[in-house]
Amino acid sequence: MEYLQELQSEIEKVRSELDVAAEQNVSAGECYKTSIRLDKLIEDYMQYTKDKVHFRNCK
Q: Which pTM value belongs to this model?
């Protein structure tokens, strides 16, 4: 459960970074890199929760 909370926290942090970058007209390349980081974190979150539900249903 701690890992899930860490992922949620990191997702919020990177989402905020992306918002700030967009507001400050940071280069498209930097926004893209931050967006990719956010996508990866969300993917990890989704995979973790999917695996957790699958494991729970197998018991």
A: 0.80
